[in-house]
Amino acid sequence: MLILSIGLILAQLLSASINFAERDRVLLRTSGMESAQRIADVVKLLDSVPQGERQRLASVLSVPPQIVELESAPTSPRGAVTNLPQTAMFSMALRTALGDERRLLVSAGATWPSLGASAVAHLPHSGMTEMPDMAAAMSRMSPTALSSMQSFMASKLGFLIQVQLQDGSWVAFTTQLHQSAKEPPWRLLLTLLVLLVTVLVLSYAAVRWMIRPLAILSSAADSLGKDINRPPLPELGPTEVRVAAHAFNTMQARLIRFIADRTRIFSAMSHDLKTPITRMRLRTELLEDDEIRARFEQDLLEMEHMVKDTLDFMRGLDQPQQAQPIDIMALLESLQADHEEMGRDVQIRGRAIGPFLGDPARLKRCLSNLIDNAILYGGQAAVIVDDNASALTLRIQDQGRGIPDEELDKVFEPFYRLESSRSRETGGTGLGLGIARDIARAAGGDLSLRNRQDGGLEAVLKLPRKPTQRVGFASANSVH
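and the corresponding structure tokens:
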């Protein structure tokens, strides 16, 4: 819109300047022709009457700002200029109106319109505007300066026109060209303003119509990671936007099929693995050596957990979220009670200002993974709640050794663990943090890790609040 507006305004200004210049030239030429025709009519009238009647007739026709006086010979007033473009143009117009080759003299000077020819001829030197070098000065001017000077002179200079009658006597006219050329062209300005406003309004509507599908496409791309099963985009708008929307819908359909196929494969693998694991568990019960039986049971339990965790991770977030108000404090206290029953130390600090709109099961899974990770590596967990109108931030801290800075992002990768024993007692399956981050990002937030200055690791779970979530506990039902 800014580019269109600037271009249109510059074009309008250029067009207006051209129109104004042409208008001034036309009006100046028209006014000159009108004055020349009036003078020619007076000259022809004086030629047609006897010499004795001319003085009386000249007195009748002498009406300001055009003064008519009879002369026996032409005069050359001081300060007169005869080589201006206006004088040459007026001389041509007057000769055309007269229709013959009689002698005539046209000169220009300041303050002449209100004076007669005799007064102009006898003006003192102090009352005149001397312009002996005007032609030379104008020849050195640039075209722009010359045009401005000519417009100024056309509005300020008076003209002395002296025409020879058929009997050899002379008649003098002092006048000034019409001033309408200097009046503001309000109708033209209004027309340009209406055109400018109309084009800008139509351009705004056209731009809005074109970019609205792009805004929808951007929103859909942002929400695709949160809900892969979101409705497809409407394929509307200009051709290019329809093509982009169709490509986006095709991509979404392919992703849905890929995730569904992958989930089915791992579901089948999980189902098929349960049967041999169950048989192995039954055979383990037949072992007489308690130590060997305990080891087999531990290995089988670890296999079951690995299969379950892998299946949960590969399923990802292909299912839509079941968003509802969640009482964050009740959820944390429930997790705290579960861990205390197992003899684990979990502390909660701070409070939430109100319910959070999200998927309770997923958020519980995310927090459970983070608390388990803190207890596993740090022996205890502290959950710090920092809530405001824009975001809910949960910090899970431990007292462990921390993680090398270059490993902080790698631990979110599937099956990546800092230690290589792959024992659940020392490192789990390496999927918990990845699942927790996927849940956070599906809710529009994020999960990050950082080492604390006083030792230990801190997991920062930041979940943005929507406007509808900024309510108190009394205004919504809480779920935990």
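(Above: one complete record from the training split.) The chain has three domains: 2-182, 223-297, 322-475.
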